[in-house]
Amino acid sequence: MKKAPGSTDGLGAALKRSFVWHWHILGLGAGVAAAVISGAPLLWLPFLAAAELGYLGFLGLNPRFQKVLKAEKVLPPPIPIDPQLRLQQLIEFLSKADAQRFESLHRRCSELLQLRSSMGTKDQASGVNNFRGESLDRMLWLFLKLLHQRSGLERFLSATRREVIETELQSANQQLANAQERDKSAALPESRLTTSIRERVVTIQERLDNHRQASEGLELVTAEIDKTEQQITHLCEVGMTMADSAGLSVQIDSISASLQSSEKLFSEASFSQIYDDEPAPPLLSGVAPAARNAVLQ
Questions:
Q1: How far apart (Å, rounded) are the C-alpha atoms in residues 149 and 217?
Q2: Which end of the chain is more exposed for a tag (fewer CB within 10 A), N or C?
Q3: Do 138 and 15 belong to one domain?
Q4: How many CA atoms lie within 13 Å of 143's alpha carbon, on the beta-carbon side?
Q5: Which has the closest alpha carbon to 51: 33, 23, 31?
Q6: Burial zone of 62 (CB within 10 Å; 0-12 exposed, 13-18 middle, 19+ buried)
Q7: Residue 62 shares a structural domain with residue 100
Q8: SS3 call for 188
Q9: What is the domain range of residue 55?
Q10: Looking at 74, 98, 118, which one is the last position of a domain?
Q11: Using an 8 Å Cβ cutoff, are 252 and 235 in contact?
Q12: For residue range 18-31, what is the model confidence (pLDDT) as tens digits?
């Protein structure tokens, strides 16, 4: 039976998929460049051509390899998470105290915004909208993600005690010393048992380092939570008392500069996922509070 004209399973389509595979193009280009740089391209290019024919003839037509290439081509992009669902997931992960802390801060922001709106300042349209849209939503979202990060670290540290790991490391080091002494007494190279114990010691040391990094990260996240909470409260209060939008913009710029500093700090501390480009849901709109309140009840 002949292949349909639009079929992607024919010989030509299979060879084309194999040839345009990005890793193959990269390797082929590197091979041609190396042959030219060697000063004897006529010597090396035939070998490269033979390797190319071998790739297309054996690996390029391999059914399993073709399935991989076709899967790469048709793999759909990841479905973005709905911001409201993401909000609910973050809040559900928090402890009751942290969830109430977030709700309290959100309520304070909302009340101050409503109070400012009721004052009916002439700059309300530009100042308050900018104030809410570009600052509070993002900062409340950041505050929630910081609480989420801390909850994860607290759960990890409560389930993994440093004293237990240190005891395991001490025991493994003693076993390693005994095994090395036996090997030395027998005048033999390092035995498989000694190698296995040595690798276990390295693994336990890595666990201990990971626990230390988690403890340091918990301190850093906690300090950032307190700072961000004060910044949000300050921004709300300034937005309530400051009459002109120009002065409010200065305050917003100051807070933004502080956030950029925090972004750099957390990026270096491997917490850059907190400051990623994930869009903040409308935390001060009428939709997000409904989902949030359903979780907190």
A1: 9
A2: N
A3: no
A4: 25
A5: 31
A6: middle
A7: no
A8: coil
A9: 11-74
A10: 74
A11: yes
A12: 766 667 677 777 77
Shared domain for 151 and 246, answered yes or no, is yes
pLDDT digits (tens, 9 = 90+) for 166-218: 999 999 999 999 999 998 998 888 899 999 999 999 999 999 999 999 999 89
* pLDDT value at residue 199: 95
> Tokens for 297?
């009840």
Name the amino acid, one letter, at 49.
A
The identity of residue 189, as a single letter, is P
- pLDDT tens-digit map of 239-270: 666 655 556 666 666 665 666 565 555 545 55
Q: Is the pLDDT of residue 142 over 80?
A: yes
Task: Determine the length of the chain.
Answer: 297
Angle, helices 288-296 vs 83-93, to 10°: value is 20
Measured at the CA of 138, the angle between CA 134 and CA 139, to 5 degrees, comes to 110
3-state secondary structure of 221: helix
| Whether the Cβ atoms of residue 296 and residue 99 lie closer than 8 Å to each other | yes
Task: Judge whether 150 and 222 are in contact, CB under 8 Å.
Answer: yes
Domain count, the chain: 2
Residue 42 vs residues 49, 56, 105, 110: alpha-carbon distances, Å = 11, 22, 73, 75
Helix H segments across the chain? 11-19, 22-37, 41-54, 63-74, 83-93, 96-119, 129-131, 137-159, 162-185, 192-241, 245-268, 288-296
How many other C-beta atoms are found inside a 10 Å radius of the C-beta of residue 290? 10
Q: For residues 259 and 120, state if they share a domain.
A: yes
